[in-house]
Design brief:
By secondary structure, the protein is an alpha/beta fold. The protein has 18 helices and 16 strands. InterPro entries: AB_hydrolase_fold.
Length: 459
């Protein structure tokens, strides 16, 4: 099969990865995607041969040479490609590609053994999916799927699976959270969700997070924004989801309604709802429990109700959730907030579309071009997230100070690479080369070095 440039662009954007070091191309079906991954990330690639029944096979010298030549023909780096053999242990990959293979022409169930060895907590699996193949139920056991193309009767669809932890961390978190709550706070186990309250001051920050991310991808094993909130001396109510639930659970609704009835939020002079992506949805939606609060969210979804946002294809795992009720539509629920600060990358089409649904007079849009869906992480790397957040909470964030802080992105590797790729895609190779040379004069970057070589050869 042969991918178009538009298809490659869609795949690269949907990966949502700042760094990719190791890639596995199963049976070498898409050398053009391999070349694109090398150009963007400077990654190493393994050509992996797997038979129809899932058995690993040796890659012949002839197959490896042909694949390297095909990748080189697409502008890739053949020297960074190696063939694998079945007697070698499988190590985890950042990206695994099986386009036109398992999930479409080959049965996905036979890939189980390889995936169990090859996935880590942030792996991505890129695959085509045949209608009725059972791929989605199978993949739910490994992670969540972002559908790029819906499967149809006469053609396969396409999806990217983001791997998640196979086991629950709720037991470990309960022990940690009860200790953190102390005598003045509380911890409520709601089953699929939980609430941790720490009482410190008259400013309360309500955060929303995924338990697996907190427990496995942060060294301190704490909720989103924990250290920042603690350093400010603020109180915290941390809502944790044991999975990709979007907090759509009757128990969570009832807990917030109970807090509202008990006038819990009235104890505080200032209440802030804070979150990113799924957590951003939760923050905006449940702010309705505390009218007059401030909402600060990055890349939030407004709802995943397919009747309302039929264009949202990224989070198939939550399509079965009920997005009705007082907290179902974050764009509507957040209208009672004093202010809704909405940060998003306008070049991420789905994020921009969700942002456009927030139309209340209390909404302040803060576009962050070329920082991607995980722009909270980008802002943190830039050293700008804390200052922007505090300024928003203290009601002193203005356009001038925001864009002054956003200028720090010029030194961010992700932004630099995105700027180069945007320049190339829009037909400005001279500008792309200028950016490459500017960056490479200051630091090493394998991906930009490769792009610079190609641009010089084309000049």
């Amino acid at each position: 099969m042969r991918l178009t440039q538009d298809e490659i662009r869609d795949i690269l954007g949907a990966l949502d990865r700042d760094e990719v070091a190791r890639v596995a191309d199963l049976n070498g079906t898409t050398p053009e995607l391999t070349a694109a991954l090398q150009k963007r990330f400077g990654c190493k690639v393994d050509l992996v041969a797997i038979g129809a029944e899932g058995e690993r096979e040796a890659v012949s010298d002839g197959d490896l040479a042909a694949y390297r030549a095909a990748v080189a023909g697409c502008g890739g780096v053949p020297e960074a490609i190696r063939g694998t053999s079945p007697d070698k242990k499988v190590h985890p990959y950042d990206v695994i590609v099986t386009l036109g293979g398992f999930g479409s022409s080959l049965k996905i169930k036979h890939l189980r053994g390889f995936l169990q060895a090859a996935l880590h907590g942030q792996s991505r699996l890129v695959l085509d999916i045949k209608l009725g193949s059972g791929s989605y139920p199978f993949l739910n056991g490994f992670g969540t799927c972002h559908t790029l193309i819906e499967p149809a009767q006469h053609r396969p669809g396409r999806a990217i699976m983001s791997a998640t932890s196979p086991s629950s961390n709720s037991g470990q978190w309960s022990a940690i959270a009860r200790d953190l709550a102390g005598a003045r706070g509380f911890f409520h186990d709601l089953g699929e969700h939980s609430m941790l309250f720490q009482d410190r001051s008259e400013t309360l920050v309500v955060t929303f997070d995924n338990l697996d991310i907190a427990m496995e991808k942060r060294d301190e094993r704490r909720p989103w924004g924990y250290s920042f909130i603690e350093a400010q001396g603020w109180s915290m109510l941390g809502v944790m989801a044991d999975g990709w639930t979007w907090f759509r659970d009757v128990a969570v609704d009832e807990a917030f309604l109970r807090l509202s009835r008990d006038r819990f939020f009235d104890r505080f002079s200032r209440v802030i709802f804070y979150g990113a992506s799924m957590g951003g949805y939760g923050a905006a939606a449940f702010s309705a429990a505390a009218p007059g609060s401030t909402v600060f969210v990055t890349s939030p979804q407004s709802t995943l109700d397919k009747a309302v946002v039929p264009w949202e294809m990224r989070y198939k795992t939550a399509w079965g959730r009920n997005f009705s009720g007082p907290f179902g539509d974050a764009a509507a629920a957040s209208r009672t907030a004093k202010a809704v600060h909405l940060l998003y990358d306008p070049y991420v089409a789905a994020d921009a579309a969700h942002a456009a649904r927030f139309t209340g007079r209390n909404v302040l849009h803060w576009p962050c071009p070329l920082l991607g869906h995980r722009l909270g992480s980008s802002l943190h790397q830039m050293g700008a997230l804390k200052e922007i957040t505090v300024a928003a909470i203290e009601e002193r964030l203005d356009r001038q100070s925001f864009y002054r802080l956003l200028r720090k992105r010029r030194d961010l590797p992700r932004y630099q690479r995105e700027l180069v790729h945007q320049a190339v895609e829009r037909g400005h190779p001279e500008l792309a080369l200028k950016v490459c040379n500017h960056v490479l004069a200051r630091r090493e970057d394998k991906a930009l070095s490769g792009i610079a070589r190609q641009l010089k050869n084309l000049a």
